[in-house]
Design goal:
By secondary structure, the protein is mainly α. Helix content is 75%, strand content 0%. The longest helix has 16 residues. It is elongated, with a radius of gyration of 19 Å. The termini are far apart.
């Protein structure tokens, strides 16, 4: 697996090495993700997207796989497919907020603030207050131009526990200084 990873990082064809590693350790998710990345680098992105979709159907709690699926779909210009596995996982496991939060996180990274706000409201109504979701919601509100509502929500949340949340807060503070 290490040789395959180093080869991939060096820009050398690594799909065969990852394939061998998968035969030796078929349950290793990191090897599977490396195999997908190597094949994508070799121009087999669509086939890898289908392989990831099948793997996520079998294991909907594989959140690194969901993230890779969404990133690969976006890179292939198939952004509309990027969140479909997460939506299926959310429907399948409505009491588990992980898939819904990952979708919110991916939408926030894509600056799709209206979708972040809509999904955050649905998730918060279903699960109650989850600070990470509330930080994403506050950031989306601020990005959409409602600085007063964002400031109020950020104030309710207190100090950020994660660096990403601190960045959300700093962006809001900078936005307010520039207005």
């Amino acid at each position: 697996h290490s040789l395959a990873q180093v080869s991939l990082e060096a820009g050398v064809s690594a799909s065969g090495l990852f394939e061998t590693a998968l035969r030796l350790n078929p349950g290793n998710a990191d090897i599977r993700l490396g195999y997908v990345a190597a094949n994508q680098a070799e121009g087999n992105g669509l086939a890898m997207l289908d392989m990831l979709a099948a793997g996520l159907e079998a294991n909907p709690a594989w959140f690194d796989g969901h993230r890779q699926y969404a990133q690969l779909a976006n890179q292939l210009g198939l952004g509309e497919r990027a969140l479909e596995t997460l939506d299926r996982a959310t429907e399948r496991f409505p009491d588990q907020p992980n898939a819904a939060y990952l979708a919110i996180d991916l939408l926030a990274a894509a600056s799709n603030n209206q979708a972040v706000l809509e999904r955050a409201d649905v998730l918060l109504a279903r699960t109650g207050d989850i600070p990470a979701v509330m930080f994403a919601k506050a950031a989306a509100i601020g990005e959409l131009g409602d600085s007063a509502a964002a400031r109020t929500l950020f104030a309710q949340l207190g100090e950020p526990a994660e660096p990403k949340h601190a960045v959300y807060l700093l962006r809001q503070l900078l936005r307010e200084q520039l207005l």
